[in-house]
Amino acid sequence: IQGYGIGKLKHLKNLREYAKRQTGKKRKTKQKDDSFLDQDLGDKQQNKNTTKLKEDIIETDLIPYLRKKKQLPCLYFCFSRKRCESNAHFFASLHELKLLDRKKQEQILEQFDALCIQFDIVEEKLITSFRKLIACGIAYHHAGMLPTLKEVVERLFTSGLIQLLFTTETFAVGINMPACTVVFDSLEKFDGVNFRYLKAREYHQMAGRAGRRGIDTVGYVYAQVDPQYATYTDVSKTISDKIEPITSQFNLSYSSILNLYEKYGDDIYDVYTMSLSNHQNYKRIADLNNQITQLEEEQQSLPVPTCIHDNINGMKQIEGYHQFKRKNAKKRENLQVELATFKSRTSRGKSRKKELKKKTAPLYRKMKRLNTELSKNLCHDCYQRPECTSRYQAIRKTEHYVNNIKKRQTNIADFQRDQIAARLNVLETLGYVEEQKLLPRGNTASHLYGYELQLTQLLFRGFFERLNEDEINCLLIAIVSEPRKDGYFKRLKHKRILSILGAAWNEIVDIQSVENGHDVSEITPLLELRLCSAMLAWSRGCEFDTLTDYAALDPGDFVRTFRLVIDQLRQIRRAMTGHTALIDKLNRCIAKINRDVVDAERQLRIGQDDLFEDEKDNKSEQNGGEIHG
């Protein structure tokens, strides 16, 4: 692995700071030239005219270096969609960076145009700007793109014509498309909570794409590291540390529990003991046991408080002193509050002062008594009290650690078993199981994978019979959508659908109430209404390009969410075998959503047709231009 910005970090230039200084010089010059105009235009226009450094782009000569060393094509991993796009446009704007000669440029544009026609995406908004990137041998790839456009990019990259592909880490999983070089835009990523360095497993998963079998003898890996923030230890841990072990993500859903309960009954707990999760829990418990043993040995070696007075247990004495001191301080605090209250209520004047003195005298006597009681304690004025306190705190701190670890042990040992029992209790309360048998609701839910409780409750409450196709689609997208904190979403104003969603909301609240009553750890999520307007418009036949009027989502996110709704509708259809009228309605629901770019089978058919045409061409060439039956 060849490191750019890894190893001797002091040799890496801080390009960001340099760029800021250069931009600052340009900014000052421009402000001087336009100063008299800016006075009249105001702050808003002044800010508009001021050149601002793009914080999300680090200028670098790495790509020209790769081109010079003939280390292209390159997979350039970024950890946000926006960064993939901005980096691609930035490098495409560098006129001195020529990654393709004229012949290859014509070749890649010809293939791109043909694929866009084949996948029927010529009229999509992004195609014009994307074509400019392709002409430079540059592209980007992330989950927010249309699946058809991602397919086009993947085919062009496979052809070897795309020289620089900016992509998120998902490209390294499940897609076998290696390159000569891999570049990391950063070794840090945001995991949804905090920024952290890549784990060794994540790093090697992506770095492993460097080097094409049968083409490259060496694969090159580079990482951009800012020495102002990075440390050698952090970077070294990412690229050189041992790969983390696989950890179980065991989490039995209601559907899984129903299927296992139908087959094994109460022996479902024995089935869990055969899982990887249980095996790893045994190891965690053993590790915690070792920690407890080590801490208890340390505790035995800690010095114990000793009292200078005869026949006094030093540990009990100093512990009692601190307990008494805390209670004493609390009582004095309460007395201070009472005194302040009396003073605030008493008006000025000699007679009032006498009255105040009379009322507060008992309080002052109590405070004096508390101080006297504290001073009489053997430890209060003892010269050895600081040392005894230090020893006492060290022992209690170790005991606290041991108790916490023991609680963790108990939680690990019992958690999954307790959660299975809790979920079974929920299913029994809601009428899904009885005496180790599945009831009708349980049979239905056992055929649904994901959102099984919400869907089953709504099915048995008659929602799907009463609603029309558009209303069902809106209800489903409210169930499957994940909460989003930001971005524009058009509010749903359809009164009937809002009433339906309100009734469904109450059904889910009832489910949550039962789950909370049985201490289920992950309760059923409530409805998410932000995409309902977009789904209603799509179900009624709007164009795909107009969906951004209803929600600020990337095209790929619309497609993925709509396909998730289709998947749930198909599961319900499969679970409702024999209910002809409902199945027909569900088919109409699917047909309203599964069109244009949302239709995954259409994309697959187009790809297969292309492969079939290639086979025909190959046979034609082998047979002198004729195809024989």
**What CATH architecture label of the domain at 62-240 applies?**
3-Layer(aba) Sandwich
Shape: extended
Q: How helix-rich are the residues, as a percent range?
A: 55-70%
Average pLDDT, rounded to a whole number, is 81
The number of E-state strands comes to 9
Give the CATH class of the domain at 62-240. Answer: Alpha Beta
Uncertain segments are 1-19, 26-57, 618-629
Note the main sheet.
Answer: 5 strands, parallel
Strand content: under 5%
Distance between the amino and carboxyl termini? 52 Å
Reported by name, the CATH topology of the domain at 62-240 is: Rossmann fold
CATH superfamily of the domain at 62-240: P-loop containing nucleotide triphosphate hydrolases
Structural class: mainly alpha
Count of helix runs: 24
What spatial order of strands do you see in the largest sheet?
2-3-1-4-7
Evaluate the radius of gyration. 35 Å
